[in-house]
Amino acid sequence: MHAAQNVLVIKKDQAGEETWRYSGTVLLRRENGVLLSARFNREDLLFHGILFAQDDLFIEAYFNDRWYNIFEIYDKRTNALKGWYCNIACPAEFSDGRIAYTDLALDLLVYPDGRQLVLDEDEFTALSLTPRAQQQALAALAELQKLFLPPVRFRLQEDGAGLFKPADSGSG
What is the pLDDT of residue 155? Predict the structure, then answer.
């Protein structure tokens, strides 16, 4: 996988069943992660006060050593930042031309002003996770909540490379 390569992103549920797929373009590849750009490929959706519009730009960070991924969302017309959507997920799997991840239902929505909304806690608690996996997922949520404390200063487009350090190095 290399910069400018088109890749297929596959989201799976806990049972390993594919729930969504779309294509993106690799912006940056590191040993522990991939940064890519993609376009929202669903119909317009008003989601907790944020309009996810078809063809909005998503800058997405996937990691093979962390239990989350981060989507930074930009308006397709104005390029204004709409916010971040973070999936709590098993570490991503990278193969030639493909990124796959298993979603664990728990999500964090972050508004540009730093307000945070934890989503789908009931779905998460209903999953049949091992105690270790549940602990990893909750630790990932806590790490993301800390990363996005107001005032939110980072942008994946500008300094996403800083996220691609080993998780134990103190990076977000």
Answer: 81
Q: Please give the pLDDT value at position 168.
A: 46
∠ at Cα 63 (164, 99), nearest 5°?
A: 130
Separation between Cα atoms, residue 51 and residue 43, nearest integer Å: 10
Tokens 């570490």 correspond to 91
Instruction: Say how far residue 69 (Cα) sits from the centre of its chain.
Output: 3
H helix or E strand, kind and range, residue 126: helix 121-126
- Taking residues 6-19, what's their average pLDDT? 95
Band of pLDDT at residue 150, cut at 50, 70 and 90: confident
The dihedral over CA atoms of 119, 122, 124, 130, expressed in degrees to the nearest 10, equals 150
What CATH number belongs to 6-154? 2.40.380.10
Cis omega (within 30 of 0) for bond into 131: no
Q: Hey, where are the domains in the chain?
A: 6-154
Distance of CA 153 to the CA centre of its chain: 17
